C-alpha cells in the first residue's frame, strides 16, 4: 500500500526533468513537501508516536523505488533518521556515517549524501551520535556534475554535545540505504537498456537479437538480480535498524556490481550513451556516487571477511545464511 502510494508521487513529481532542475539548483520544495505532507517520512516511527510502525522488510521496495526514480531529496535518510532519533527537527535530514575532529576542534564529515541540500545531519563521530545544523557548516561541493554530495565542516563552537552513543548505527543504516537505492537504480538502467536494444535496429534487426548483445544483457541481468538479493538481506530483519553484517554484505555486493552494469549500459547505448540529454546518466552517475559513499566494496568486504575468519570451520554459504543474520549490529 505504501509503496504504491509513493510510486504514484514519484511518477508524478520525480520526473527526469525535475531531477535535472534540482541538480541545477532548482527548488526541491514541491517534491519534498509531497513526501513529507503525506506522512511517508514517518514510516519507521512507532504507531504510538503517530507513525506507520513499519519494519525494515517493508521499507526495501520503497527505498529501491527511490533509486529507480533518482530521487533528488534525502527522503530515505530522513526516514532512517527518525528511527535513530525520535525527536527530529523539521526539514531535510541526511546521514553522515563517519566524521572526525580536526586539529582546530572543528568537525569534518566527508562526502555527505545530499550535503548541499540538507537542513540537518545525523552524524557518527567515532560512535557518538550528533545532530548538527547544516546551515552552520561550510559546504564543499564534490565538484561532480549534478552531484548533491558535499563535505561539511562545522566550526568547533557549533558542534555541541553528543545526544547518544549509537553513532555506528548511522553508518550501517546508510550503507543499507545505498545498497537498496543502488539495486533500484540498476533495475532502471537494465530496463532502459533492454528497451533501447529492442528498439534500435541495425542490419535489418533489433540489436538485442545479436548474440554478443544478448550476452552483455545477460551479464547485466545477473548483476542486477544479485544486487537485489543482497539488498534484501540487509532489510530482512523484523527490526528498525539494519544489522552490521547483512548491511556490509549488501553494500559490498551492490557496489561491486556498479562498474560492470554502468559500463555495459553505456557501451550498448553507443555514442548516445554519453550525452547529457539521455536519462541514463541520471542513474549511472548516482550509481558511481553511491558505490563509494560510506565506503566502497573494499571497505565492507574487509568487515565481512574478518567476521568470516572469526568463525573457523564455517563454510561461506552457512556464514551468509546463518551467522551473518544472527550477529548483533
UniProtKB/TrEMBL annotation:
This is Acyl-CoA dehydrogenase. Residues 177-306 form the Acyl-CoA dehydrogenase/oxidase C-terminal domain. Signal peptide: none annotated. Pfam families: Acyl-CoA_dh_1. Belongs to the acyl-CoA dehydrogenase family. InterPro entries: AcylCo_DH-like_C (IPR036250), AcylCo_DH/oxidase_C (IPR009075), AcylCoA_DH/ox_N_sf (IPR037069), AcylCoA_DH/oxidase_NM_dom_sf (IPR009100). Its cofactor is FAD. SUPFAM superfamilies: Acyl-CoA dehydrogenase C-terminal domain-like, Acyl-CoA dehydrogenase NM domain-like. It comes from the Bacteria. The keyword Oxidoreductase applies.
Amino acid at each position: 500500500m505504501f509503496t504504491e502510494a509513493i510510486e504514484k508521487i514519484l511518477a508524478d513529481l520525480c520526473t527526469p526533468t525535475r531531477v535535472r532542475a534540482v541538480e541545477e539548483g532548482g527548488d526541491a520544495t514541491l517534491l519534498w513537501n509531497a513526501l513529507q505532507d503525506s506522512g511517508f517520512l514517518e514510516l519507521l516511527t512507532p504507531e504510538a508516536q503517530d507513525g506507520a510502525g513499519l519494519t525494515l522488510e517493508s521499507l526495501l521496495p520503497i527505498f529501491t523505488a527511490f533509486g529507480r526514480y533518482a530521487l533528488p531529496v534525502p527522503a530515505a535518510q530522513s526516514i532512517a533518521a527518525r528511527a535513530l532519533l525520535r525527536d527530529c527537527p523539521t526539514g531535510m535530514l541526511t546521514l553522515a556515517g563517519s566524521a572526525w575532529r580536526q586539529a582546530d576542534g572543528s568537525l569534518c564529515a566527508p562526502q555527505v549524501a545530499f550535503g548541499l541540500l540538507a537542513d540537518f545531519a545525523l552524524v557518527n563521530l567515532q560512535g557518538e551520535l550528533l545532530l548538527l545544523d547544516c546551515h552552520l557548516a561550510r559546504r564543499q561541493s564534490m565538484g561532480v556534475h549534478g552531484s548533491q554530495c558535499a563535505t561539511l565542516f562545522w566550526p568547533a563552537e557549533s558542534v555541541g554535545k553528543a545526544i547518544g552513543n549509537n553513532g555506528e548505527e548511522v553508518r550501517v543504516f546508510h550503507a543499507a540505504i545505498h545498497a537498496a537505492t543502488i539495486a533500484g537504480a540498476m533495475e532502471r538502467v537494465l530496463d532502459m537498456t533492454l528497451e533501447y536494444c529492442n528498439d534500435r535496429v541495425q542490419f535489418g534487426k533489433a540489436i538485442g537479437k545479436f548474440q554478443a548483445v544478448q550476452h552483455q544483457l545477460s551479464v547485466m541481468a545477473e548483476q542486477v538480480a544479485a544486487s537485489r538479493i543482497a539488498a534484501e538481506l540487509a532489510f530482512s530483519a523484523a527490526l528498525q535498524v539494519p544489522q552490521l553484517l547483512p548491511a556490509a554484505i549488501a553494500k559490498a555486493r551492490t557496489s561491486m556490481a556498479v562498474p560492470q552494469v554502468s559500463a555495459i549500459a553505456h557501451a550498448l547505448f553507443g555514442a548516445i550513451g554519453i550525452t547529457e540529454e539521455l536519462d541514463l546518466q541520471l542513474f549511472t552517475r548516482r550509481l558511481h556516487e553511491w558505490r563509494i559513499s560510506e565506503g566502497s566494496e573494499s571497505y565492507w568486504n574487509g568487515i565481512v571477511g574478518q567476521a568470516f575468519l572469526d568463525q573457523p570451520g564455517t563454510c561461506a554459504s552457512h556464514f551468509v545464511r546463518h551467522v551473518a543474520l544472527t550477529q548483533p549490529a
